[in-house]
Write a structure and sequence with these properties.
Blueprint (H helix, E strand, L loop, with lengths): L12 H31 L1 E4 L1 E4 L6 E2 L10 E7 L2 E6 L14 E4 L4 E4 L3 E4 L2 E8 L2 E6 L6 H6 L1 H9 L9 H16 L20 H9 L1 E3 L5 H9 L17 E5 L2 E5 L10 E3 L34 E4 L9 E7 L8 E4 L15 E6 L8 E8 L6 E6 L15 H8 L2 E2 L3 E6 H12 L3 E3 L1 H9 L2 E5 L3 E2 H11 L3 E5 L2 E5 L2
Parallel strand pairs: 3-7, 23-27
Antiparallel strand pairs: 1-10, 2-4, 4-5, 5-6, 6-7, 8-9, 9-10, 11-13, 12-13, 14-15, 15-18, 16-19, 17-18, 19-20, 21-25, 22-24, 26-27
Helix pairs in contact: 3-6, 4-5
């Protein structure tokens, strides 16, 4: 028999060569696996955590967060910022990207804990074990200083009660490409900064898309400075509060900054900024002003107060803002101008960024609780919320009235027919309390039940306030009682 096979146990050189090659391939694969493992272990970052006491009654769940805020959290200190991590589902563990939460010490919101988190020293998937936070860094096309600056976006989102956004590599490359195009073509000011000409040097489809959708800041010393400046504006702040956004792109070069957040405009329900219950709100409009100018009666919004706005959705999208009332801690109305898409602040920006807007004429006062009433055409009840430039919210209502008879008197008042669609029960009840001057408290049993299923959907006809409150409670399997000069909502 011809060929080079092994017969009857005789030596065959071809088979030996094949075996040696197979062994070398397996050996190389083992070395590569060990090397990759060692490299991953070397790149993995670890941060010690400490257990801290918190006051659940001073905290509130942000958009999308579910569960119960326990009196303890895990803390990560970085510079002057302390990040807090919460076991919201009560399973004794903190798991990123599941059902737990995070916040920042001094701020009131606990937001969903993302799977990927951005820290000044890197962004990556998180794991909590052994009293430490383990971070496996992503590879991002950003200078370390720019990446560290981007952490400001995390704080801004948490200030608004929203989960942080991860920085996306491709979106960031597109932002950088657009900034390069602007520099190459000496196109670094005005609204023309958002455009790219395919016939010009440096044009890319990705850069052009980023230019159309991004916020751009010329002549700014850093990305950090740009993010804080945008935060204090009327139009450029809005994309940072995209409730449906999934990631962001950033870039800083040539003295230019870019922030690109696709999908920011999609909104399921109205969203206020500053958020209801927000603390440590800045007092002034961004010091660089804004283009287009949202205060056309002035040459620039510089010197005005921090903008107060409501992103519109649902039925409010087609309604005109007929009045905007903002009061300070003493109940005094503050001066300012209001606008909306049906009555825009300036013809050069007819969409009004799809928001109802109030800009105070002067900077807000320090350590002051502000209350906001936005009233819309065709809607009887105002949209109401409150925020503070200080560390606490001073109560609008007393904890209780003089006696139960005062409570019953208010409950006999008429309540307008309303439609509630997937709105948090606590927000609906808080609106009723503020509009009618009625102290309403949630008992612990009600809080626990609402943590599992917070939303309420209900259509009502015109009825007494007592009947409306009873209908809302029935939807959630709760009941209310009148005692000690207030309404108490609890389990049956």
């Amino acid at each position: 028999m011809g060929g080079s096979q092994q017969q009857g146990g005789r030596y065959n050189p071809a088979v030996e060569r094949s075996s040696r090659i197979g062994f070398l391939v397996v050996f190389c694969c083992i070395l590569m696996t060990i090397g990759s493992s060692l490299l991953a272990e070397e790149e993995r970052l670890e941060f010690p955590l400490r257990t801290v006491e918190v006051s659940p009654e001073l905290l509130r769940l942000g958009r999308g967060a579910r569960g119960r805020i326990a009196p303890r959290a895990q803390a990560l200190d970085h510079g002057t910022t302390t990040f807090l991590f919460f076991d919201l589902d009560g399973d004794g563990r903190i798991v990123a990207g599941k059902s737990d939460g995070m916040g920042i010490e001094g701020l009131p919101f606990v937001v969903p804990l993302p799977r990927v988190f951005l820290l000044p020293m890197g962004q990556g998937a998180m794991e909590f074990s052994g009293g430490k936070l383990h971070l496996t860094p992503d590879v991002l096309p950003l200078d370390p200083a720019v990446l560290a600056d981007a952490v400001v976006l995390t704080e801004i989102r948490i200030r608004a009660g929203l989960a942080p956004l991860p920085i996306d590599a491709e979106l960031s490359r597109a932002c950088a490409a657009h900034l390069d195009y602007l520099k190459q073509n000496d196109q670094t000011s005005g609204m023309g900064m958002h455009d790219e000409d395919p016939a010009k040097e440096g044009y890319t489809p990705e850069g052009a898309a980023a230019g159309r959708g991004a916020s751009l800041f010329p002549l700014i010393p850093s990305l950090k400075a740009a993010l804080w400046a945008w935060y204090g504006t009327a139009w450029h702040a809005t994309p940072m509060f995209g409730t449906s956004a999934r990631s962001a792109g950033v870039a800083y070069r040539h003295g230019l900054a870019a922030l690109y957040i696709p999908g920011w405009s999609t909104l399921d329900r109205p969203f206020p900024h500053p958020a209801d219950g927000a603390l440590l709100v800045p007092r002034e409009f961004g010091k660089r002003g804004e283009i287009p100018n949202p205060t056309p009666h002035r040459s620039s919004p510089k010197g005005c107060g921090f903008p107060i706005l409501l992103r519109l959705a649902g039925q409010l999208s087609g309604r005109k803002l007929i009045s905007a009332t903002v009061t300070d801690g003493a109940g005094r109305e503050i001066e300012g101008t209001h606008s909306c898409p049906l009555d825009p602040a300036t013809p050069s920006w007819p969409t009004n960024s799809r928001e109802a807007l109030f800009i105070p004429e002067k900077p807000l006062a320090p350590d002051t609780t502000y209350r906001v009433w936005f009233r819309f055409e065709g809607r009887r009840d105002a949209v109401i919320w409150q925020f503070s430039t200080g560390k606490t919210i001073k109560p609008l209502l007393p904890d209780r009235l003089k006696n139960d008879a005062e409570v019953r008197k208010i409950l006999r008042l008429k309540a307008p027919g309303q439609s509630f669609e997937n709105q948090p029960f606590t927000e609906v009840v808080a609106d009723l309390a503020m509009t009618r001057g009625l102290p309403i408290h949630l008992e612990e049993g009600a809080r626990a039940k609402l943590a599992e299923d917070p939303a309420v959907t209900l259509q009502t006809a015109e009825m007494k306030l007592s009947e409306l409150l009873e209908a809302l409670c029935d939807v959630k399997g709760l009941r209310y009682r009148i005692k000690r000069g207030a309404v108490w909502v609890g389990l049956p």
